[in-house]
Amino acid sequence: MARKNPAKKSVKKPVRKTAKKPAKKAAKKPAKKPAKKTARKPAKKVAPRKAVRRKLPAPKAAPVSARKAPRTSLRAEPSFVEAAVRPMPAPQPLPMVEPARPDRRLVLVFMGPPGVGKGTQAAKLAQHLGLPHISTGDLFRDHLKRDTPLGLKAKEFMNAGQLVPDDLVVELVIDRIGAQDCRGGYILDGFPRTVPQADRLAQALAVRGERVSAVLYFDAPREVIVERISGRRTCRACGAISHAVYAPTRVEGVCDACGGQTYQREDDAADKVRQRLTVYDASTGPLVPYYRERGLLREFDARGGVEDIYRGLVATVESLA
């Protein structure tokens, strides 16, 4: 019996191990919720409608109060849109604005012929109101004493026997009223003396925004004035003044204040007084109608007593305020 060859044993080759690539992890997606199944209703068949034009209702007019009310909505139209839609209002005239000026000051002018007592009344009123009493005579003496440029100019004319020009006199006055003590007002005694001086003073004050408040005019009959001035007596030592008729000294010719000798000044003689009054009427007399026409003249009878005249003067000045 033949022997069967034994079956060859097959040798299995070793399997090569290969590195497996890591599988990509799929991004986790949120699980979808299962949609609810809703039963679909069968669509109703609708017959097509014919197009009909409808008239829109007219917009209702807003009440007057609503139209005038200011807009507070954030969607308000900008100003340039409103200006284009609404009619612009008619331009209003601009208000008049006065130029800057200092506080209104009381400017008083005392005027009258020599011997009527205007200097006495001006001094009393100046003390009562606390205002400076300014006279051109005092101004000239002060500038001449201090040798100021204005005083030297005036001295040239005086030495030549000529009248000081109006422009220079006004310049002296304007320089004085610009001082600190004149801020509340001042009293001009015996100035202006001529119409040109009055015009120059008005122009100078207008530049400063001011004007003459009133002109206080004192007058008396000429013979009364001659008697007053010719009776004055002056002390040679202290300059005190007395009067031979109205206020005589206790001893004739002797000053009550210092015992000095009294005398009559040369320009106080009766004939000299009449000459001065003639010059006054020619040069200063035209100022009376000048200021009367402008409504500034206030007239006083200088024949009364000093206190009576002063009371009327104070009442007149208080009425100006």
Order of helices and strands: HHEHEHHHEHEHEEEHHEH
DSSP E strands, number: 8
> Which regions have little confidence, pLDDT < 50, spanning 5+ residues?
72-85, 93-103
User: Any idea what the shape is?
Assistant: elongated
Highest-level CATH class of the domain at 106-220 and 284-320:
Alpha Beta
Just name the CATH architecture of the domain at 106-220 and 284-320: 3-Layer(aba) Sandwich
With strands numbered from the N-terminus, the spatial order across the biggest sheet is 2-3-1-4-8
Count every helix, treating DSSP H or I runs of 4 or more residues as helices: 11
CATH topology group of the domain at 106-220 and 284-320: Rossmann fold
Could you name the CATH homologous superfamily of the domain at 106-220 and 284-320? P-loop containing nucleotide triphosphate hydrolases
Mean pLDDT: 78
Radius of gyration: 55 Å
How many strands, which pairing sense, and closed or not: the largest β-sheet?
A: 5 strands, parallel
Distance between the termini: 173 Å
Structural class: alpha/beta
- What is the helix content? 25-40%
Approximate strand percentage: 5-15%
